[in-house]
Amino acid sequence: MDTSTSDQRRRGKLLVRLKPFFEIIRPLNCFSASLGVFVGLIIAAGFNFPLMNLIFGMLSCFLICAAGNVINDYYDVEIDRINAPHRPIPSGRISPSEAYIYAVLLFTAGGLLSLAINIY
Fold it and tell me: In whole angstroms, what is the distance from residue 40 CA to residue 46 CA?
């Protein structure tokens, strides 16, 4: 077997495994929340703010929103088995324990990133 074909298969399997972790965060919702940070900062400070604060704020918001979406799916798994069986946890593409750990990691990353803006 050709090594490039083997590498492509490995990458394909990895992408299939990672796709539900991307899907469960609902990235468009997280992006919308991050835009709220941008709008809020423009309203509060005009255009007189450090660009890095905007970047850290938007990323932090994205990660915390993502964690909220994951933990919501974790707690709503029984409802989703009936109403949305295609979602990552009820479909079995992500285990509940993986989802819980993922949510904790996302909350932690978002919280730590927010500290880069300031302690408050």
Answer: 9
